[in-house]
Amino acid sequence: MKQGGVTSTVRDVAAVAGVSIATVSRVLNGRGNVTPETRELVERAVAQLGGRGPRPRGGPKPFPGSVLVRCPYLLTDYFGIIVSSVAETLELHGRSVVLSAGDTAQRSRVLPQLPGRPGIAGAVLILPPEPAEELAALRERQFPFIVVDPRLPPPRDMLAVSAAHAAGARRLTTHLTGLGHRRIGVVAGPREWLASDARLAGHAAALADAGVLGEPGLIRHVEPTVEWGHRAAGELLDSDDRPTALLGFNDKAAVGALQAAVERGLRVPRDVSVGGFDDIDLSRATRPTLTTVRQPLLELGRMAVTLLVRVLERHELEALHVELSTELVIRDSTGPVRVPG
User: At what angle do helices 165-178 and 194-209 cross, to 10 degrees?
Assistant: First the structure.
């Protein structure tokens, strides 16, 4: 390692970290008989000296330990698919899983304790609810982790993998404008979610392509559940100039929109078209079946593990933010706009 043209040695690292030369050697060789706190001191010293540190014979050793998979939500047909994929892929890489999931996990402060948690080498954080400051602090402590489907825009130096939300939403709205729809209601997700912003941007771009200026009054921001989708869709359908199509933030919100339409005696898709996002099993169980955008949920899990394992094995990464393509799945819930008369 060089700093200002001078090669740093194990002795230099030891002096900066305030530990023995033997301890530095154990850290650089990836041996397990070093506390997480001491390992962090040595790695900070290496970074401070301006490089990767003195290389042991055979190159740097992988970070030993298990991977924490944090999904502070119920493991339903969306989150459950991602978590299962993550766990299966970690097993293929010889890494054991420590699972933190469910509503109780959402109320626990896990991230600040991760760097000092014995036996944990890294973490997969799925739609983490923690504020950006906590994620940034974890990154500054050089703890390896990756965010799956980030709630907030990730910093440029943070590993993240998500679906191409904007492109998927644009494709779905383009499908509707191609069927003649111009007045399209949107049951969007929470305002602060990155995916909500991206999907609304894709929707607006498709409307602009069709020469239509989007109306803020046709958008409702809600929690993406059947119940909230039902309520928001009802408000839109009860308006004097009701939309000819409705888009749900996800398939659950879209199912709520289907229910709201049926309750008002509207036929789908003859009177109103409905589209969703995700392509979970529910989208194939509705009547009519739901037009939606397929997210590659299994691949999201696989890609997250692949990137994290490369970090744990001390490989260089060029792409830190990865977006996986989505696919429009056209079913029976969308059709041509009905011409009055």
Answer: 30
CATH code of residue 187? 3.40.50.2300
Domain count, the chain: 3
Which ranges constitute the DSSP H helices of the chain? 10-17, 21-28, 36-48, 79-92, 103-106, 132-140, 165-178, 194-209, 226-237, 251-263, 282-285, 297-312
What CATH number is given to the structural domain containing 36? 1.10.260.40
Q: Do 179 and 279 fall within a single domain? A: yes
In this prediction, residue 30 has a pLDDT band, given cuts at 50, 70 and 90, of low
| Calpha distance 255→261 (Å, rounded) | 10
56-77 confidence digits (pLDDT tens)? 445 567 888 999 999 999 898 8
Cα-to-chain-centroid distance, residue 148: 3
- Residue 252 and residue 193 share a domain: yes
Q: Are 102 and 125 in contact (CB under 8 A)?
A: no
| Domain co-membership, 35 together with 130 | no
Give residue-wise pLDDT tens across range 116-141: 899 999 999 999 998 889 999 999 99
Cα(3)–Cα(6) distance, rounded to whole angstroms?
5
Structure tokens at 236: 């839109």
Tokens of 240: 């004097």
| pLDDT score, position 6 | 44
- Print the domain residue range for 104: 66-163+298-325
